[in-house]
From TrEMBL:
A Pfam family this chain is assigned to: Sec23_trunk
Record-given protein name: Sec23/sec24 transport family protein
Keyword Transport attached: yes
Protein family per UniProt: Belongs to the SEC23/SEC24 family. SEC24 subfamily.
Key word Heme present: no
Entry-linked InterPro entries: Sec23/24_helical_dom, Sec23/24_helical_dom_sf, Sec23/24_trunk_dom, SEC23_SEC24_subfamily, vWFA_dom_sf, Znf_Sec23_Sec24, Znf_Sec23_Sec24_sf
Domain Sec23/Sec24 helical: 500-612
Length: 746
């Protein structure tokens, strides 16, 4: 569980918080195997016996004062009695007990229900494939699923389904694959004429991977796109016989969730559905009107960037609720360059604990690699995340892909969580007094994460298992707790000196996404601009850098816009500029596809701070040869390239990696760089640490089209995108901020 705060020293009270101009909060990656310094938890059992505070329900931890019969809560100060079992337990040497030896523990909990339920923990995976598509799309999907079959653990069950104007269910447990079809009514109101269970019993549809892998592969080979003739005869005639679309995605998903839900808690504890789409749902329930993409400029009063961000129907949000109740997590893979309205579809994946992937074409898609990577990493499910704080402050907002508990505050449910998924919180003071300057009780944050994992029985001792479950999987329920103490800052300089700019960026990105969804991209940009102006003014005020006596002209020339007195704040103006140049916040007129914007919102909302930094302001490294690094970091400007003598540059933009050889590079340098060189080793290391597979490009300046690389050199680009001015860009942006700060300080 990695936790990073916006500043390691907390503001002393709300006046100090306001004076700093900074957001106050933290990010947490609950299922990360280690903490932010690379240290793992102390493991143990009997998590249900861990003492809890009678007042605030916090868990006992190393910061609590422990007496022979009682303990004092480190969060609220309440004195709690110890049970006789706990008294006996804590009389042993403390280093043998996880919760007294480490502030980061991971304890096993007893499972609810009988032992027999432990044996019914088979992982279930279902692929739902769009047949209203092309041969290329199906070839890509087949190769992705073949990669997925290699990554699935033995004991898993796999189901293959297709959708178009009908739903196809495949039985691969016999000698040849058999498909049963159920036709989808074309209108948006009608339900299916037949339950899927009546077409094919679920346990006939879900095949064991280890015995049926070859037959699943054979069934995939039989998939063909639906022809226009089939669609027209398949009850897809529109008004006056005009051919309508035939992608009955909404009806198919709803039917699949109900189908799987019958065995939830019996055959499986979590089912994952992989939905492969090649375009928008245009048939049956949940069909989407994509004409709004073309008509967004029709009314001059509508902000085009705002018009396409909200969902047009609650259907998919409601469908995500059905998925959760059925124990299903949905990953959506959209392979399309046409407008698919991901703004409406995204809820199906993010609210069920899944991921949303977008690929603009089948040619260079990383779908098979993403699929393999996603299934190969560990994940937890049925998770509950709870953040508690000491009494002087409290969480204000929480951000990330979870759903809040309807009953309890600051309690979040996460359906499925991998080791990359990151959530964020910001804080406010609970009262006007804040933290006491002379108190011995520092601010404390405790994060509790309860989760379930499926463990192959090979990893457990036979004595731990009921006889019926040998060679299968068992469920394990665990409780991970991290308790952290922070210092308070005695003055504003101490806050500034302890800032983590990457966490500040994370909170800003979350806030800006929310504002742009509610009020449009322009509002999001304005919020960011105003925040930087206020922060710069507060910083200049704190360091007494501006003499107010002078006129406005000399005042703006005195303003320190680059935070030269504070290295921790120095990166922020560049990061804000880069965020304004990011497709997340660029205007539609610049050619930002609305689906790509939604995809970035979903991706950036789950990235941990360092990865997000890379996605917003890519890192640019130079090499003198493929085996020798020249300089670890350059600014993203053409000037940086011209002033550097290095012939090779490596750009890491999180989703894209580019190796660029300058036009003046020595022709004897090998291109592309050889597999065993240092540059390749660094590229492979970067790729391994990613949640998605970055696209790798090699470009030779002067020979290949270098546009893809040059687009990332943002510092000469105009911040509003009204033409790429020569050397204005970042410099004129700073001038503009400086003028605004002078106005604000006057």
């Amino acid at each position: 569980m990695a936790v990073r705060a916006t500043a390691s020293r907390f503001p002393i009270d709300s006046d100090a918080l306001e004076a700093s101009g900074l957001p106050w909060g933290l990010t947490v990656t609950p299922f990360a195997a280690k903490d932010e310094t690379g240290i793992g938890p102390a493991y143990g059992s009997n998590g249900h016996l861990l003492p809890r505070c009678e007042n605030c329900y916090a868990y006992f931890n190393t910061y609590c004062e422990l007496d022979q019969w009682a303990w004092t809560c480190s969060l609220c100060g309440t004195l709690n009695g110890l049970s006789s079992d706990a008294i006996a337990r804590y009389s042993y040497p403390h280093d043998s007990i996880p919760e007294t030896s480490s502030s980061f523990v991971d304890l096993e909990l007893p499972l609810d229900g009988s032992e027999e339920e432990m044996t019914q923990a088979r992982p279930v995976y279902v692929a739902a494939i769009d047949l209203s598509s092309s041969e290329e799309f199906l070839e890509l999907t087949k190769s992705a699923l073949l990669a997925a079959l290699e990554a699935l653990s033995p004991g898993s069950l796999f189901g293959l389904a297709t959708f178009s104007h009908k739903i196809g269910l495949y039985d691969v447990q016999g000698p040849i694959p058999v498909v049963k079809n159920v036709f989808i009514p074309p209108d948006a109101e009608s339900k299916l004429p037949l339950e899927l269970e009546d077409a094919m019993p679920l346990l006939q549809f879900l095949a064991p991977v280890e015995t049926c892998k070859d037959r699943i592969a054979a069934a995939l080979e039989t998939l063909r796109p639906i022809t226009s003739w089939e669609r027209s005869s398949g009850a897809a005639q529109g008004i006056d016989g005009v051919l309508m679309g035939g992608r009955g995605f909404g009806t198919a998903m709803e039917a699949l969730f109900n189908y799987l839900g019958s065995e939830f808690g019996n055959t499986f504890a979590l089912a994952r559905v992989f939905a492969f789409m090649s375009g928008p749902p245009d048939y049956g329930r949940g069909q989407l009107d994509t004409s709004r993409y073309g008509e967004q400029y029709a009314s001059k009063r509508v902000d085009a960037d705002r018009a396409l961000l909200p969902e047009q129907t609650p259907f998919y949000k409601d469908l995500a609720t059905i998925a959760v109740q059925s124990g299903v997590c949905v990953d959506v893979f959209a392979v399309t360059n046409e407008y698919t309205d991901l703004a409406s579809l995204k809820f199906l994946s993010i609210e069920s604990g899944g991921s949303l992937f977008l690929y603009s074409s089948t040619d260079d898609s990383t779908l098979p690699q993403d699929m393999f990577r996603m299934l190969n990493r560990p994940y937890a499910f049925n998770c509950v995340l709870r953040l508690r704080t000491s009494t002087e402050f409290k969480p204000l907002h929480s951000y990330g892909h979870f759903f809040p508990d309807p009953q309890y505050e600051n309690l979040q449910h996460i359906i499925c969580c991998d080791s990359y998924a990151t959530y964020a919180y910001d804080f406010e003071f609970a009262n006007n007094t804040g933290f006491s300057r002379h108190s011995r009780e520092p601010p404390v944050v405790q994060i509790a994460f309860q989760y379930t994992v499926v463990v192959p029985t090979e990893g457990l001792q036979n004595s731990e298992l009921p006889s019926s479950s040998r060679g299968k999987h068992v469920l394990q329920r665990r409780l991970r707790i991290r308790t952290m103490q922070f210092e308070t800052a005695q003055n504003i300089n101490e806050i500034y000196d302890s800032v983590d700019h990457e966490v500040v960026l994370s909170l800003l990105v979350h806030k800006v996404i929310l504002v742009s969804l509610e009020d449009g991209v322009r509002e999001g940009r304005a919020l960011l601009h105003d925040w930087l102006v206020i922060l710069t003014a507060q910083y200049n005020d704190a360091y007494n850098l501006v003499q107010y006596k002078n006129g406005n002209k000399s005042m703006s020339s005195q303003i320190d816009i680059t935070f030269s007195q504070c290295p921790q704040l120095e990166p922020l103006p560049r990061l804000v500029f880069a965020l304004l140049r990011n497709p997340l916040l660029r205007f539609h007129e610049e050619g930002v596809h609305p689906d790509y914007r939604i995809y970035l919102q979903c991706l950036f909302s789950v990235l941990e701070p360092s990865s997000l930094h890379c996605g917003i302001y890519p890192s640019l490294t130079s090499y003198s040869t493929p085996d020798k690094q020249a300089y670890p970091r350059h600014s993203l400007s053409r000037a940086a390239l011209l002033t550097s003598d290095s012939p090779i540059f490596f750009l890491d933009a999180y989703t894209t990696l580019i190796v660029f050889y300058t036009s003046t590079a020595d022709p004897s340098l090998p291109f592309p760089p050889p597999q065993d060189c240092l540059l390749r080793k660094n590229i492979n290391m970067v790729k391994q640490g990613r949640s998605i597979t970055p696209k790798l490009m090699f470009i030779r300046g002067g020979k290949d089209d270098a546009t893809a690389f040059e687009n990332y050199l943002i510092e000469e680009q105009d911040v509003d995108g009204s033409g790429f001015a020569s050397a204005k860009g970042f410099v004129s942006f700073l001038d503009d901020i400086s003028q605004s700060v002078a106005e604000y300080m006057k």
